[in-house]
DNA polymerase IV
Amino acid sequence: MVSAGQNSVSGQKYVDESWDATILHIDMDAFFLSVELLDYPQFRGRPAVVGGKSPRSVVTSASYEAREFGIRSAMPMAHALARYPRLIVIEPTREKYSQASQSVMEVLHDITPMVEQLSIDEAFVDVEGARRRLGSPAQIASLIKERIREATQLPSTVGVAATKSLAKILSDRSKPDGIGVVPANRTREYLAPLPVNVIWGVGPKLFERLNNAAIHTVGDLAAQDPVRMKRWLGVTGPQIVQLARGEDPRPVEPRQDAKTVSVEHTFDHDITDPYLLEKNLLDLSYECSRRVRNEGLAAGGISVKVKDVDFSTRTKSVTLHTPATSGAVFFEHTKHLLEGLMSQRWHPVRLLGVRADRVAKPVEQSEAQESLFDLEGSSTQTHSEKDWDATDKILDDVAQKFPAAAIKPATLLRHQRQARMSDG
């Protein structure tokens, strides 16, 4: 593992050389599981995962002890349990992850405004403008880890380099709970002996093709002629050669707003009952809208996704005339989208999902939201935006204080009764 204050190639001690390595990649360690272990400390040091307990669920996050058995994120839960039958499975609590992520990002924004959030648990930051105030990039990386630990009690790993691609490589190779540093002038030297698949864009198939061509290391790839590589691999060829040579001009681009918020559910058994489908759609619509509201955002579009019994995936979307936050408005749109998908092809449904698209901060917090009754063609608005806000706020407050509470919209309860009646 490369560590701050060391020569990244030989391990020989040097004075801190990281001053020109101003791009940091911060990645939380086994994020979802680490958050859950705050509430389940008895599972620390044991093979454990976060995910649904249904055999059809997938692993969301795996402990490093579980990884020793070959268990990885996105692996079907049935496969994970087959590898280690005594595996501890913790069901996800999504609200906790959003809160932890927000705390992490607040720490980063306190360091510098140059934060490019990639996902809920990782981000790039450019600390060029923070060096005079906080020290070298290596010192800033250590400070970031310390502040994240203080704010969240969670471990993180930081890669420190002159380029995005190398910073990401370093954070991957310095886990868990580490700091990887490569000074700018040692970038190519560090990369040369690494396996070629550390380069962004080199997936399993391309990795095999490169190996068959005797290109095994990053150094081998860096030595290739970009023109020849373009003839062989198209535009990907010169791009991966450039990255292998340590050339990555992409800047850190701050992203203030999320683009999408999605929720989905994989059923234990394929669903054919339209009432049960609509009941689950309503539940997902309210959950998705709640997450959007919790971030202080609004949705500019809504999508519905279904995965059929043959694993084919279909989606249908709509653009909203006015940004929406209400669960009732979400459901009115998703209901029509699902009807459209199922009329195209009726298949048993394996997975159902709802996604809020073009999610951003509302232009004005007081801007009127599209009324549910307007959607239904009524010329008289009998419910105001404030009415929906009040209803949603009650549901949000209850969900926050009592996560397991069974308080849901009355329409949802009606559909639950219909589903029970249809089951006989």
User: Anything to note?
Assistant: Confidence is low (pLDDT under 50) at residues 1-14, 364-388, 403-407, 415-424.
